[in-house]
Amino acid sequence: MSPSWLSTAASIGMAVGPPLVYADQAISIVRKKDATGFSRDVCAILLIANITRCFFWLGEHFETALLVQSILMIAAQLALLYICILYRPRLSPEALGGSSRPLSFWQWTSYSQYIEFLAGLILCQAILFLIFGRSEVFVGALGFIALGLESTLPIPQLISNYRQRSLYGFRMSTLIGWAGGDSFKTVYFFLQHSPLQFKVCAIFQLSIDCAIVVQRIMYGTKPPLSAVLNEEDELEQALALAEE
Prior knowledge:
Blueprint: H1 3-32, H2 41-59, H3 64-86, H4 93-96, H5 111-132, H6 136-151, H7 154-164, H8 172-191, H9 196-219, H10 225-243
């Protein structure tokens, strides 16, 4: 296989691979009818980061494969977000009627509220780009914001795993996709001489993936205590109803 075919195959894999990682996670949530174990903040990070990366591309035309990846990722995360809201955990802050976050950020009750926020984000970034789009400093800052934010992607999941002392609900396929995909893209960025922002952020993200792999070995995938207690409560209620 010639180097040009290898390059084309790598570009196609780079564009399509990362969005497909979340397909198995979405299928798992639908089957269980429960999004417990998957942090919805992952969707927030990927949506905001990839929207910003599209504006970064307008200022600095990096590889087309990476732009296509961003567009496909936005579509994939919008679908996954809808599924997560449809099957939100019973102990989620919005289900319990309270949130400790300012303005209940990313813990809203309806899907339309998320869409309104993203539409406002796109509008604000479009206005800023029209004003400062010719500034190299602004374009460079967009790149670091987009890729720096994306590099924090595994952190909410890392925290969620630590709090639960379990990776229950977090698909092994997603973890493999993260670690394998981030390893691949780190090598890809260096071989393709991508902008510095891509290289630095890819290395950081890969280090967090490794930490989650360690959590998988330490914690396993047993159900968290809260989930076990919920099941026991439901069983007690069912028995009480049966006795009546």
